[in-house]
Amino acid sequence: MSADLQRLNQRLASAKPSATYRIIDRVAERRAQGARIISLCAGEPDFDTPEHVRQAAIQAIEEGHTRYTQVAGVRSLREAVADKFRRENGLDVTWQDTLICSGGKQVIYNALAATLNEGDEIIVPAPYWVSYPEMVELCGGQARIVICNAETGFKLTPAALAAAITDRTRWLILNSPSNPTGAVYSRVELEALAQVLLTNPQVLILADDIYEHLIFDEQTFVTLAQAEPRLMPRTLTMNGVSKAYAMTGWRIGFATGPRWLLHAMEKLQGQQTSGASSISQQAARAALAGPKDFIHQSRAVFQRRRDLMVSRLNQIPGLACEAPGGAFYAFACCAGLIGRTTAAGRTLRTDEDVALALLDEANVAVVQGSAFGLGPYIRIAYALDDASLHQACDAIGRFCQNLR
């Protein structure tokens, strides 16, 4: 087969595979070889989808909701989404100000693909979710990475935002609570960022609120357009049911924003995937409109697991971890391990070396922080039962104690 025949789109050829999925694939290979791996790498709740949501999907099948839907989603779900934004986020929107997509990832990709031209810059605070920069590059833009280290709580400051904005800036992506750090922006912090954005009217804002309901210590969640309503005409606020309702496989994301942008995203989606799964849409409507007991219960479980993990990790020589304010990730500094040698003779030069050595020698899977734009850290997803988390910490502890 000729090399010319295998020629790829240049943007795709330069894109990097998801670091998370690379680790997941390696876990699958190790397990296929008989290894017993504790995986702390996937951003997926370990709970079952709530019973009333599953029953709504079964009912949808039995009632014949198995056909194509409108590209933007069925009206009943869009009304439930609008009601959610009004009730929970204080955003004055109607169902016509909403869009349903096949997962939150599609919301983000469609927004970027619909608006970016060559040379447009997108401000991406780091640490960032691994897909943000790759999506930007695939859509023809340039990711302008702004490092937000532990001294700022891994959060973007107004000064750093102002310094990053240029006449080519098209978007700011803001994720709170954050993947991978669990950092949560307060209303005061959002208002301060908003002051910078108000003086730069050319900048669109993408508020990724997918971990909205996983927020700890009785904090109050605030989204950017809620903190500063004057930004609503240029803010896309996205969310979904995957994390809050343990519906990762149902693939439903949604957004509200300016209608010109939603119409452009709908146009793109109409030539791409068309409407999301009809059955999943009915299930998502039941989740948003139904009881919220599941959210409160899962949040309490995740906060307890957070406390467990942070306490255990800080007892391990070479690791240091601040308590995250939300999501279900611990972002642990592993600088104390760099330069040391494992029991198997591997020298740990980077946080990726640490992650791979933990998998190969301790049978614990984590993801290196450098994949999220900041090292030397490791991201640990504590979406597992307490017994597995204790076993993982025991294994990590033994690994670190045996370093030379």
How would you describe what is shown here?
The protein has 404 residues and is of the alpha/beta class. The protein has two domains: 10-48 and 294-401, Alpha-Beta Complex (Aspartate Aminotransferase, domain 1); 51-289, 3-Layer(aba) Sandwich (Aspartate Aminotransferase, domain 2), CATH 3.40.640. 40% of the residues lie in helices and 13% in strands. It contains 14 helices and twelve strands. It has helices spanning 10-14, 19-32, 51-62, 75-89, 104-115, 131-138, 158-164, 187-198, 224-227, 259-270, 278-289, 293-313, 351-362, 386-401, and strands spanning 38-39, 98-101, 121-126, 142-147, 169-175, 204-208, 235-240, 253-256, 329-333, 364-365, 367-368, 377-381. The strands form three sheets. The protein has a seven-stranded mixed sheet, with helices on both faces. Helix 8 links the parallel strand 5 (169-175) and strand 6. Helix 3 crosses helix 11 (278-289) and helix 4 runs parallel beside helix 11. The longest helix is centred in the C-terminal third of the chain and has 21 residues, at 293-313. The radius of gyration is 21 Å and the shape is globular.
